[in-house]
Amino acid sequence: MITNQVLLLLMLSILWPSTALPFTPGNIGNLFGMPDSDGRVLQRSKRGWMWNQFFLLEEYAGNDHQYVGKLHSNMDRGAGNVKYVLTGEGAGSLFLIDEKSGDIHATKRLDREEKAMYTLVAKVLDRNTNTELEPDTEFNIKIHDINDNEPKFAKEIYFASVPEMSEVGTSVVTVTADDADDQTYGNSAKLVYSILQGQPYFSVDSENGTIKTALPGMDREVKENYQVVIQAKDMAGQMGGLSGTTTVSITLSDVNDSPPRFANHSFRVTAVESTEIGGAIGRIKADDPDVGHNAEMEYSIVGGHDIFNIITDQTTQEGVIIIKNALDYESKRDYEFRVEVRNTYLDARFIHGLQFKDYATVKVTVEDVDEPPVFTRNPYIIEVHEDTAAGSFVGVVSARDPDADNKPVKYSIDRHTDLERLFNIDSVNGTITTLKALDREMSKWHNISVVATEIHNPRETTRVPVFIKVLDVNDNAPEFAMSYDTFVCENVKAAQLIQTISAVDTDEPLVGHKFVFSISATNPNFTIVDREDNTANILTRRGGFSRREMSMYFLPVVISDNDYPIQSSTSTLIVRVCACDSRGNMQTCNPEVLPFSDGLTTGALVAILLCVIILLMIVVLFAALRRQRKKEPLIISKEDVRDNVVSYNDEGGGEEDTQAFDIGTLRNPEVMDANKLRRDIIPEMLFPFRRTSPIKDNTDVRYFINGRLQENDLDPTAPPYDSLATYAYEGSGSLAESLSSLESAATEGDHDYDYLSNWGTPFKKLAEMYIAKSPDRET
Asked: Which branch of life, at top level (predicted)?
């Protein structure tokens, strides 16, 4: 047993010179530079001075540097002048060399699973000159494997399935483990599989790990899931080997080995007679322990049935009983039939000796309900002639209560289907009559709905469509089929065809239409020929028509039908007289213009009249533009106003304005009337509100102003508009005395203006101005 030391096993390959001694176990020490048993030191050639391979055990558990081997050169005489150098994989990190002795040590534990071999190069140098004493030699250090890795499975748990009822030895799944140890050396990686849990149901192949069934007749309906534990052990399963385990979850998959069975072989179902066709009245179910498509079932009625049918609900695997034809409690109240259930999919391995179907009896009881009335027909088609008087008979509808009580029924018309209220119905006997006369040309069919309602249960109602066809009566006269554009040439000859006419009639007689055309026999210009096919030709009775004499003829045509009573109408055909070429092609149909006695034609008169109207419009427009022309005001800015300035925004109307200024007076001042006042417009005052002066006896100021005003009014040199005139006369007798500073010898600072505030509102502004300038107040 090797512990805590490095085992040097073999030297596999050494290159010896031709003169070297043979290699024997007795001189192994000489390979390390040691004398042999005879006291001789082995001599080597320069190319083979060391071994080329060492072996080490992995995972050595030492703490210090572990000894690997020793290098020695013949040039090393023990004088200390030789230096050993190691290069290559792991040199200096994993492997260190004593440069004096050549001993190689490993610095840490080595793992073969990480790296199995290291390649290094050994050098021998002169310590003083650093020159090579021997050629470089390459050698390998191989790590020898030990059993230090247990087997490992790829998954901790595997999932697998096998059909139930499988034979013994049926393969389920194969699970394998991996061992990181050396596969080529020893039994460290040789695995053996065994089952630890899952017997006696399953077994495992010891060599490849294949799990197989070991018990016959395993039934999924009894037990579905199994847990199997598999062990993998190295060292060929011997004692001391390492092992690993995994779990395999095995599920038995279903096969169709169980037939469907009814838990109860008799079912009772109740259905109301009002159930609609296709409606479900009940469900039955059989049990099948299988799952998936193996449990899918199909239901059917043995021998079929006239009233009922059964279908399979694919989601719940239930049999759904439905109505195939209407139920009637009064006719039959009880039914009985047999239902069969079977699997949809069968497995041939299990059908022997088993019946994969089952039977059950179903009894159906019909319950009575209060049913709505039932009409004897659906729908009704009734014919009636048009133009029948209001209240005329149309037809009869009939309904009855299908219940055994046969309750009375009343009738009504759904007015949503008879918005014009053309019909009425007797609520007791269902007789339909007209409320208004019917016109087939307006509507050929009338579709109404009649409602039948139980008198004692108004919720039970039934409606039926009634189609009323209006039959035709010959009450419309025929007329032209279209509007005709007929003309006759001036140069036409007698008996020449000018138009073919036809007629239409909105009536529809049973034998078809037959129209007769005629005109007055005394018509001197045209005649008509009936073609017996509901058309007629218009011919000229004479030739030589003239537009100048008459440009248009009105031809009355009488059209009659052959139905009873005969209807006729007169349509007027307008025939224009046109100028045509020699081939009869129309050129123009305008009447010729006759010349007047003075030689002017109508066109010339129209042109002259238009010219006169245009000239009048130009004159009126010019006069309107002159009236709208405005003058620029002399004073533009409203701020250029002093004292009580009265401004006028209106200007004179020119020479035609007699209510403004007298233009003659302005031009001839020598003939001016001294007593004539100005006739200005009423001005718009800037200051419309003025308080009356508290002093009424200011006659001197009034005379002064009136005199100046008269002078300006009579002054021929004054401008013809209002102007501002300033006067220095202040009057006399004022309670405030003189406000002028011209006659005052005192300075402005000698006056006390506080008394101005006692003069009232008219002097408020003046008081504010002078009191504000008082020296005492300024200080």
From this structure: Eukaryota
